[in-house]
Amino acid sequence: MLATHTPSFTILIAEDDDGHAELVVEQLQNAGVSCPFRRFRDGQEVLDLLLPADGEPGWDRESPCLVLLDINMPRVDGLTVLRRLKGDPATRGIPVIMLTTTDDPGEVAACYGLGCNLYITKPVEFEAFAETLHRLGQLLQVLKVVRS
Amino acid sequence: MPPTLPLAGLPLFLLLVAGGAKLRRFVLQARSDRLYREAGRARERAWDGMLKSLNVQTLVLAHSGLGIAHIKDRRIQWANPRWAEIFGVTPEQCAGTSTASIHLDLAGFEAFGRSAYATVERDGHYASDVRLRRVDGSPFWGFMVGSLLVPGAPEEGAIWCLEDVSARVEAQQELEGTLRLNQKLIASSPTGILLYRASDGACILANEAAARTLGSGGEDLLGQNFRRIPAWVEAGLLVRAEAALGTGAEQALETTLVLAPGREIGLACMFVPFESRGEQILLLLVTDISARKRSEREREQLMMELEQKNKELETLVHVASHDLRSPLVNIQGFSQRLGRSLDELKLLLQAGGSLEDLNRAAQPLLTDRMPAALEYIRASGVKMDAIINGLLRLSRAGRMVLRSERLDMDRLLETTAAAMAFQLQEAEGALQLEPLPPCKADPVQTAQVFSNLLDNAIKYRRPGEPLQIRVTGRIQHGLVVYCVEDNGIGISLEHRGRIFDIFQRLTPLGPTKGDGLGLTLVRRMVERNGGRIWVESAPGAGSRFLVELPTV
Description:
By secondary structure, chain A is α/β, with parallel strands linked by helices.
C-alpha cells in the first residue's frame, strides 16, 4: 500500500450510477488513495462547479483536482464535459480520466482526440476492475508526487 | 393553146421552126443527158446513203446493248445478237421462232404478250418492265419497248427493244422493301422516334410511341419547332439538341420533362444528327423511363431505410450491451463486497471473544455494508430486467401485424387524453385539441404514439409554469402532419439528434421513471405506419413533435 499524503488532491467523480460511484471510491481507497472524493450525478454538475455559465467557479482553481468521467450521463454527457474542460484555458490543465463501460474504439479515439489523459474501460470482471482502479490509484499517487 | 403571132413574123417563125427543130433536138438531147447523169448521180448517192444507213443499222443491231427484234404474227422475224444473248440463245435460234417458244411457254409472258401486242396494235407503242425467263428457266426483269414497224399497219408487225434491267428492278424492289420495313419499324417501335429539320426546327415525323410518350396525339408534335418548346429548355434537351447538330455527334441524356403542370415523365433521350438530301436532320429517340426512375427511387429509399435500420440495430446492440453491462458491474462488484463481508464475519466468529465485541464488530457489516450491497444487486437485477423488457417491447413493436385503416383522429386523441386526465390534472396542465384531419394507420400504435408524446410533454414540463399542450394537424404535400406542442423545458440542439435513440434519456422532473425507450418506440411505430417523426425545439422554448402519416 502506498503512503498517504496530505489531502491536497481532490478526485471529482462524475457518475450517474450510485453503485459504480461507490465501488470506484471503495476500490480507490482499498488501493491506498486517501484523497477526498466529490461525487457528481451528471456532467452538468461538474461543469457548474468548474465552468459555471455565470459567476465565479465554485472551485478554487489553484487547488489540485482530477476528474473521473463516465460517458453516458443524463443532461450533459462525459464527452461534452471533456470537450468543455479541455477547450477552456482555465481548466485545460486538470487531468481527466474517462472511466466507462463503453469500449467502442471510435469513442476511445474521440476521447483521446478531445484531450483526455486516460481512458479506462470498466470491466465486468471485478478483479480486473479492481486492478484497473488500483493502478489508477498508483497513478494518482505519482501525479500527486509530481505536483508537489 | 397556139401562140398568136403577127403575119409579118411568119417567115421568121417558119425559119425558126425549121432551124429550131434541130436545135430543139439538140437542146433536148443535152438536157436529157444531163438529167440522166444527174439521175444516175442521185441514184448513186441514194444508193450510197441507203447502203450507209443499212450499214449503220446493221452495226447498231449487231452491237447494240439493247435486244432488238422484229415480231410479226407472234413470230420473231429477226433478232439481234443482244436479244438472243438476253434470252440465252443464238440469233439463228431466234429467227422464225414463235414468241411462245422463245419465251419457253412462259404463261406470264403469254399473258404479257397478248396485252403488249394488243397495246402496240392499238396505240402503236408499248413500254414496260416485264418479268421474263431465259431458256434455262432463270427469271429476269426486262424493260420492253415496242413500236409498230409501219405506223398504222399492225399487220407489218412491231420492232421490240429489250433491256435486261434485273439489277435496277431488284435494287428498286430491295429499296422499296427497306422503305416498307423502315416504315413498319418506325410505326411499331416502342421507342418514340421523331425527326426534326435543323433549318427551321420543325418536326417532320413522329411515330405512335413518340405521341404516346410525349402525350397529346401525334398531330400536336408534327410541325412543332423544337427550339420553341419551353419544357425542352428546362429539361436540358435543347442544349443537347443543338450540341448534336453543332458537333455532329450523338448526344444521350436522361432527364425529367414537364409535359403539363404537375405531369412529369422520366425520359431517356438520344439525339442523332444526320444529313438527308442536303438537309441537316435531327433524329430524336425517346423512351419513357418514369417506371424505372420510380423503381430506382423506391430502391434508393429502401436502401436508405435498410441502412438506417441496420444502423439502428447496431446502435441497439451497442447500447443494449453497454446498458446491460452497467448493472453487471454493480452485481459483480457488490457480490465481491458481500463475499469479503462474509469473510470478515467468519474471521470475527473464529476469533471468538465476547458477544458484545462480536456484535460491535459485526454491526456495521450486518446493518450497513451487506444490506447496501444486496440492495445494489437487487436494483441492478431490476434494471437489467427493465432493459430486457424494453428490448422485447421494441422488437414486438417491429413485428406486430398492423392494420391500416382510416382513423378519426379527433376521437383517438380524445380517448388518449381521457386516459391521461389524472396525470394532466396532477401536473396542472391544459390540453388543447384542435380539429384534426383523419389519417390512415394502425389504431393501436397510433394511440400509443400520441399517448407517449403527451406523456413526454407532461414529464418534461417546465417547473413553475402552467403546462400547456396543443395538438394540431394539417394536410401537407398529400400527407397529414400532426403537431404536439408544449411549453416545457425544450431540447437542446445536441440532444435533439439523440432523443429518438434507444435508452437515451434527459433528466425529467422527479425520479426517472421512463425506460429510455419511449421515443425510440414512437419512431419505430410511426415509421412502420409509413410515416416519420421529427422535433423542433430549443431549450426553454418548448418542443414541437411533428408526426407525418399517410392520408386516407
